[in-house]
Design goal:
By secondary structure, this protein is mainly beta. Helix content is 11%, strand content 47%. It is built from two helices and eight strands.
C-alpha cells in the first residue's frame, strides 16, 4: 500500500509578486528550492495564512538569492503581495518506507532568506 506523506515544506514565506497574465505556477527563489528539496515542475500546495486560500500548482525556478515568491496566472487572484504563505509538496511511498521518511522543512526569515 502506498500513502502520501509530507516531502517538503517552505514554512511562512512572504509573497513578493503576483503576475495574473502568466500561464500559471509559483516562482520560487532557487536557493529556497534547493534547501526545501523542490525541483522545477514539481506539484505543490500553496496555503495562504492571510486569507485561508489553498491551491495546487507547480514550481518554476526563480532567480537564486532574490527571495522571490511569485504566484502566477489565475492563482494570482488568490493572494496579494505581502501575504504569508506555506508551500508544501507530498510524495507517494510504501507505508513502511513512509514510517522512516523524514521530510525537509525550512523556515526562511522575513526577507525570504535562509537563516545563516
Amino acid at each position: 500500500m502506498n500513502i502520501e506523506v509530507l516531502k517538503s515544506k517552505i514554512h511562512r514565506v512572504r509573497l513578493t509578486q503576483v503576475e495574473l497574465h502568466y500561464v500559471g505556477s509559483i516562482t520560487i527563489d532557487e536557493d529556497l528550492m534547493d534547501a526545501a528539496n523542490l525541483i522545477d515542475g514539481e506539484k505543490v500546495q500553496v496555503v495562504n495564512i492571510n486569507n485561508g486560500e489553498r491551491l495546487e500548482t507547480y514550481v518554476i525556478t526563480g532567480e537564486r538569492g532574490s527571495g522571490m515568491i511569485c504566484l502566477n496566472g489565475p492563482a494570482a487572484r488568490k493572494a496579494q503581495v505581502g501575504d504569508i504563505i506555506i508551500i508544501i509538496s507530498y510524495a507517494s511511498m510504501d507505508f513502511e518506507e513512509a514510517k522512516k521518511f523524514k521530510p525537509t522543512v525550512i523556515f526562511p526569515d522575513a526577507d525570504n532568506r535562509l537563516p545563516v
